[in-house]
Amino acid sequence: MTFAPGRTVLYRNIDGPRLATVRPCRVVSDDERGLLLWLARGSAIVLEVAGDDRGIRDMPFTEWVTLPHKVVPATWQGPGLLKFLPPGADYSVWFFRDEQDRFQNWYVNLEAPALRWDDGEVAGVDTIDYDLDIVVAPDRSWAWKDEDELAERLALPEHYWVRDEAALWASGRGVIKQIEAGEFPFDGTWTDFTPDPSWGPFESLPPGWDRPAEPRSF
Fold first, then answer.
1. 82, CA 20 to 30 Å: which among 31, 44, 192, 216?
2. Residue 3 to residue 34: CA distance in whole angstroms
């Protein structure tokens, strides 16, 4: 399944059986290197929150798993963002920008390999956020991020979606080797990206954004 440049694709995070986030993006390119998506500032998104409107990071995970949840409309507040998904990889690489829309840093989001779906009127990729991340400066110095969240959630395996902690850390270390070597996509590719001027923010999500998650075998 290949997505044509300019097509709307929903980047969806799945937490266990539930939608956690849905972000509408446009396809920059989709080729043998992977899928490159653009998320415009100000786009309509949805977020999972508890019944009292607090997010997963607003409370201990031990409390989060006891509460009812819902998804609510929100807006992507940060500058526009590139998301690169290598084929079959258990991570994506995000290109963060500053308020002047200049490249600021890379961000490695460790996650389940994306599953593509295409319902005709709406299409998307479904992944599972593994919480552990790597922040990469322009000089390719790097630092782990959210190790504390990972440890807290691993303590509740009956509720958590990370199944293999050792494999997760190994995946991250593999990406670090690419970072330190300056290999693609950490070689400057796309750091000067300029989106199509017509790619403004999405004012709403298309019908079908909440379709069931793609079946995944672990």
1. 216
2. 11
Helix (H) or strand (E) holding 118: strand 115-118
Candidates 86, 85, 62; CA nearest to 12 is: 85
CATH of the domain at 72: 2.40.380.10
Q: Which of 216, 209, 218, 211 is nearest to 46 (CA)?
A: 209
Q: Do the beta carbons of residue 122 and residue 207 sit within 8 Å? A: yes
pLDDT, tens digit, 9 for 90 and up, residues 39-68: 999 999 999 999 999 999 999 999 999 999
Q: Is residue 211 part of a domain?
A: no
Which range of residues forms the domain containing residue 58? 8-181
Q: Is this model's pTM higher than 0.85 or not?
A: yes
Tell me the backbone φ, ψ of residue 183, rounded to 5 degrees. -80, 160
